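Researcher: We plan to redesign the surface later, but first we want a full-length starting point. Tokens attached.
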């Protein structure tokens, strides 16, 4: 799908930096997540084909699990990143599926931390300089994405961290990005001929399905033990809906204050999604409501929702001229990604990596 191509392009230049700093910048992520990825309420089963492993969360967090060029990575470091990842997945995956994915996630994050150790050492050796002005600008950008009525300091405090930790993480992240960019110098940008070749060879990528952009407010019912408790939760959402319609509060403000979905940090926005990505009840509401209508309460396996659709696009095909610039950026990003991946492979190939414990 063309929409997926555009989303991938945004992460192409420095995909490793984006992945391995999920733990290091957890405060920034909580306060400054950019354009939200669509939350797929339907993707709750058969997430991994491999067998479920023993739950790593029950093991000693101080134990060394791997040693990289003499530097230890503890189970606690892996678990810290896992906690961030699990919080981000809350609302996207049913509670029953969480134990199944923990073992898979544990191994992936451990591997990411190995890469992070190697890149950190390479960045330190290169002595990359990040100015205070660069950091200040990044913090100001973060502040612009804080939900209405909340401060950056409050957002950080809710995550159990501080402005100093955020600043240090930003410096580290920016230094890594600047360093990895040096590994892509001299990489030629994709040409129009390459873009046209890609467009002609991948017609399915440029088909646009019918899609909507929508926001929602979720009151989770997983903690309810009887119908009376569920009824109270539904009444709570009815009251919220009434206030939104009466313009006592905006939809985004209500989502930020009341929604149990991670999308609350973006005012409830789920981004743009097509049919087949959401559970049936949610999809019906999203694709039948009028634009900017505060929909009736619906119930899914996750709880009670109210949905507001802000944009709708009909299915069709993206013309080459419309897609050209994005294709070129995507292909250029692929070239840079390959250069970064080759550099990281060279780091791993020359490193001494010792598996100490599972």
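Model: Full-length starting sequence:
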């Amino acid at each position: 799908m063309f929409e997926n191509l555009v989303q991938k392009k945004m992460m192409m230049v420095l995909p490793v930096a984006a992945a391995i700093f999920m733990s290091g910048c957890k405060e920034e992520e909580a306060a400054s997540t950019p354009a939200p990825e669509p939350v797929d309420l339907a993707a709750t089963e058969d997430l991994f084909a491999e067998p479920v492993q023993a739950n790593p969360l029950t093991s000693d967090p101080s134990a060394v699990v791997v040693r990289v060029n003499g530097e230890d990575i503890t189970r606690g470091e892996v678990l810290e990143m896992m906690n961030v990842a699990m919080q981000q997945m809350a609302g996207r995956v049913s509670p029953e599926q969480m134990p199944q994915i923990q073992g898979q996630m544990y191994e992936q994050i451990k591997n990411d931390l190995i890469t992070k150790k190697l890149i950190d050492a390479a960045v330190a050796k290169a002595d990359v300089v990040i100015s205070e002005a660069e950091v200040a600008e990044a913090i100001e950008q973060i502040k612009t994405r804080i939900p209405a009525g909340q401060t950056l300091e409050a957002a950080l405090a809710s995550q159990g961290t501080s402005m100093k930790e955020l600043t240090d993480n930003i410096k580290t992240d920016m230094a890594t990005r600047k360093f990895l960019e040096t590994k892509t110098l001299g990489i030629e940008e994709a040409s129009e001929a390459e873009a046209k070749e890609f467009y002609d060879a991948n017609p399915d990528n440029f088909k646009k399905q019918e899609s909507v952009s929508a926001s929602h407010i979720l009151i989770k019912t997983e903690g309810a033990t009887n119908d009376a408790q569920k009824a109270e939760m539904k009444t709570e959402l009815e009251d919220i809906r009434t206030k939104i319609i009466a313009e006592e509060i905006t939809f985004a403000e209500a989502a930020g204050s009341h929604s149990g979905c991670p999308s609350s940090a973006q005012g409830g926005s789920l981004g743009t999604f097509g049919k087949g990505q959401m559970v049936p009840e949610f999809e019906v509401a999203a694709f039948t409501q009028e634009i900017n209508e505060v929909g009736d309460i619906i119930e899914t396996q996750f709880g009670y929702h109210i949905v507001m659709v802000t944009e709708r696009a009909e299915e069709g095909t993206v013309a080459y001229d419309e897609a050209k610039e994005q294709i070129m950026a995507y292909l250029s990003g692929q070239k840079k990604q390959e250069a970064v991946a080759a550099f990281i492979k060279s780091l791993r190939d020359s490193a001494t990596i010792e598996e100490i414990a599972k």
